[in-house]
Amino acid sequence: MKMPIKLNSLLLQEDVDPAGVILLRHQDKKADPGRTPYKLWCEEKEAFERYQSIQSPGNRKKFSSNYWLSFVATPQGETMFVGLYTSRYCGLNETDLPWTSVNGSFYPTGSCDCYDLTLDKRLSDLSGRLFIEWGPGFRSWIQRAQRQNKDVIEVRPEFSEPEFPGFINFVKPLSEVESLPKSWEQVLSSSRGVYLLTCPHTKEQYVGSAYGEKGFWHRWMEYVGTGHGGNVALKSRELSDYQISILEVAGSAETTVDILKMEALWKSKLQSQKMGLNRN
Hints:
This protein is α+β, with helices and mostly antiparallel strands.
C-alpha cells in the first residue's frame, strides 16, 4: 500500500521548520457570495492578502508564528494551498478598515489585529495545485503544522476551475450564482433562452426567459439582488433559495419574440400557470 505524502515533509524539503508554521483554512461563511476567500484568491489576489492580514485580537496567540501556510476552501469543499507567508504583527488598526469579504462593511478603529504578510517564493509552484486532507475539524481553521501533519491528497498539473457542465446539466441554487467561476459567468452571459426556478419549500415552479443583454447571467443576478426579479407571484412569497436550471437555449439568430414563444411553450408543458408561479 502506497503511503500518502505528508505536508510537513514538503516544508522540510524547503528548509521550513514545521514548528514555526501555522496552517490556515480560509472559509468565510459571512462573506458575500462573490467575495469568498476562494473567489478573492482567484480574481483579486491583493484583496485576498488584505483579507487574511486582518484578524481577530482573540486569536492573537494562535497567530504568533513566523510562517502562515494558507489554504482556501473551494466551492467543492476541498482544501487548496494558496501560499506560504512570512508574518509580522503590526498592532491594532488605527483607522476604520473595509471588510474585504463583505461589501460596504468596515472594521472600526481598534477592533482588529493587523499583520504584515509577505509571500514566500518557496512552495509557490504548488499554489492552486496542492490539495490536502484537512480533517473533520473545519471549525478549527487555525492549526499548528507540527501537531497536524496533514495528508497530501493531490497535486494537480495546473490550477483550473471546474469546467462548465453544459446547459442541460446546469443545476444550481440561486445563492451560488454570484460565486460561479468566471468562465461560467462568461458562458451564461453570452447565452439566452428559457430557464426554470423551483421553490425548495412549496415545490412550485416558475418558467422565465432571458433575452436581454448578458443573457441568463444578467437575468439571474436580478433575482440575486431582489429575491423576486420583479415577478408578481415571487414577490408575494417569502424569500427562497430557488433552484435554477436551463430548459432551452436560444440560437444566435433567434429574436426576443422567438424566445418568448419558447417560454410560452414551456409554461404550457409544465402547466406553471395553473400549478406554478407564473401569472401570465
